[in-house]
Amino acid sequence: MPDTPRQPPLATFPRLLLQHAKVRPHHPAIREKDLGIWQTWSWSQAAEEVRALAAGLAEMGFRRGDNLAIIGDNRPRLYWAMFAAQCLGGVPVPMYQDAIAAEMVFVLQDAGIRFAIAEDQEQVDKLLENKAQCPELTHILYDDPRGLRHYDQPFLRSLDEAQEAGRARNRDEPGFLDGEIDKGRADDIAVMLYTSGTTGKPKGVCLTHDAFIAAARSGCEFDRLGPGDSILSYLPMAWVGDHLFSFAQATYAGFTINCPESGDTVMTDMREIGPTYYFAPPRVFENLLTQVMIRMEDAGALKRRMFHYFMEVARRCGAEILDGKPVGGLARLRYALGNLLVYGPLRNVLGMSRIRVAYTAGAAIGPDLFRFYRSIGVNLKQLYGSTETCATVCLQPDGQIKLDTVGPPLPGIEVRIDGSGEVLVRGPVMLKEYYKRPDATAEVIDAEGFFHTGDAGYFDEDGHLKIIDRAKDVGKLANGAMFAPNYIENKLKFFPHVKEAVCFGHDRDQVCAFINIDMDAVGNWAERRNITYSGYTDLAQKAEVYELIRDCVEQSNAELARDPMIADSQVHRFLVLHKELDPDDDELTRTRKVRRGFIAQKYAVLVDALYSEKTSQFIETEVKFEDGRKGKVAAELRILAARTFPAAAAQQAA
Amino acid sequence: MATARQIGEVIIDLRNISLRFGGVKALTDISFDVREHEIRAIIGPNGAGKSSMLNVINGVYRPQEGEIVLRGRHHRDMNTHAAARAGIARTFQNIALFRGMTVLDNIMTGRNLKMKSSFLLQALYWGPAQREELAHRRKVEEIIDFLEIEHIRKTPVGRLPYGLQKRVELGRALAAEPSILLLDEPMAGMNVEEKQDMCRFILDVNDQLGTTIVLIEHDMGVVMDISDRVVVLDYGRTIADGTPDEVRGNQDVIDAYLGVAH
Prior knowledge:
The structure holds 2 protein chains of 2 kinds. By secondary structure, chain A is an alpha/beta fold. In chain A, strands 4-3-5-6-7 form a 5-stranded parallel β-sheet, with helices on both faces. In chain A, strands 23-24-25-27-26 form a 5-stranded mixed β-sheet, sandwiched between helices. The two termini of chain A are about 40 Å apart. Chain B is α/β, with parallel strands linked by helices. Chain B contains 10 helices and 10 strands. Chain B has helices at about 50-55, 80-85, 105-110, 120-125, 130-145, 160-175, 190-210, 220-225, 245-250, 250-260; strands at about 10-20, 25-35, 40-45, 65-70, 75, 90, 180-185, 210-215, 230-235, 235-240. In chain B, α3 (about 105-110) packs parallel to α6. Chains A and B meet through loops of A and α5 and α7 of B.
């Protein structure tokens, strides 16, 4: 797209909102299910609500440059509050609604919050708990009055009250708000989103109207989103994805957003609304699939056979049909029949009948899972981005879907890989700065204006970006080839029999791995083969289990060999651990990420054995039981070599 | 948090109630009262006569002796219809819901007393019956919202876990818009979290709807936390009556619960 000169009338989100109110006043802007019935606000009604709220905030003393904290589930008035703050030249700061009170203090203090909008009593209570530590917090507004009747703090008011005051102000002084909106500029900060802060203190990412409108335009044009689309807004408002899809893109393209009744009703609400556009992290797609599979097990024999037969048909040709690739006439006919009998009803149950495009991101998605949704005709695609880039860097184009890439960079976005393999991004969607943190800003934006993502990746032969690991985890093998442990481990973990994997290889001549079997899956597998075992340790060391795992390792090796960049990372030798890696033993983090360094230290004798000629190694490990007692687990672990494939010959071997 | 809830006049006054089943004395000469807007707990060991007491109040059992004064009107005994019309609703120790019906329909049955249109019109879903049904449905939806059970609105009750069934039962009782709510062990068999939820709902009902609550409960922590006054029964007799603090220190109560050396 050529670089069009900025159109001042539509340079900020409030102006976009007013534009929709003028152009499509009766088109639904937002829906919410209340008392069992979907309530709709048109764009003109939404604009009216925003005007009342903005003027109300101004009445209470909200000023240009103020930050407005917004805490709660996805509710229409909380989205309107974002517009309201922007109308007045303030900055909305959505916060995670499930954070406990103590976690909120930092953001409240850091952003110097004077005004906060809370959804309900629960959120109000958390704010009140923090008030002593946040002396600047002088106004709390709430949406849902339930349970707040007896709260008599003078600084606590309902949004109804604020909007009432705002309506009066707009009547008395009709030009006031439009004047304020006119003062808004494209390079004002539109929103501040705090990074989750798994490493160090959270940082407020300042994103301008310009950046978010560019991101919204880019996504909307890429997938042709327009006023006719609708989306279910159920992910946290503080998360960049929700802000992009439910706020920025909806306001840019003018499509409808739908707020579910509660977090527990998302599945039902999804079926009722039938969105055309959908986002979910891989975990959600996985849960949905599991539910389908469990319900199919309970179905009658005829339905079950039909399901399995047509799923097999879909597996062979479904994804190709979706991509518009040539497929034989008979296969097409079978697929069409399957669509009538199985895929269509299945999409309907999942609430995906009308989906034109669905995205997933945030974590690696298993190839089988990804293929499943695509094969039943759901146009699921992967995207790549971060809070600092308005979640807009790469997106898979229709018809060019690969399982393990995130697609080529979006138009207008420059992506470069630096010497260490880190992904660098430059473009209009980048953050302006970290709030009050010039040091951190300077760290991530270099002299040429590239943002350092902290992710390691590379481009494949088609120019699609492949993200493999966090840059700090990536090492090098002794021969200089890139070693991305997470990437290999994820590949192994996609096998249902493998629960965890830990790969070693930095500064070594080959990659070796620890494997943790999945007790449920392998136990079940062993029972069906009449393999007896006395417990986890015993099962893990069975010769049959080793063969099973070897098969997994070799399959993943074959896949690794296909890609010349990482062909050297094939696992040469592996062992199956005698105990499950456990956060209680500090081997995993609480979010179940492998603590590779700690494990290498703790099991140094095993690592040494892997890199020697030994075929087995004795190990004794102390374990903590749940009640705090300690015990010992000892075993003689066998070490097996796995077949590896030469990078070139891999195509035939696999 | 200061409460604006004003505890009012005595609305149920039970005077010298005795109840016998043949030769078995279930209740002997029991007197206590319930004030408007309060949470009144009845506690006691198993077989102390707690459920019998509730059954006397809403007219399932007819006591042989004593009288019930309900809002100044003297009753020799109650009957269930009179109790329902007088605004008394209850839940049961063993859940008594229609297991094959959805949550929504179950709560809708609680509106029975409020339905005015004829059976025939309702069956045809026509004219005034339709308007009436919509109005009742709205009320039921408000209850669903109040009890936070939107996600199971259309689920058959039999498929729900125990804690949620209890909540649905409370919902059905609330559907009658009672002024007095009798709860028979609303928290039995629940885990800690479910109990906390239920406590919150009971307090909310009491506070926001102004409903007077008479409650039987075994969990002493719960009783002491949420009740305004507690009456303690043992072997069909009153052994203590007062605020939670008074009852907690009462020697007879301690003996009844912990046993006493003979």
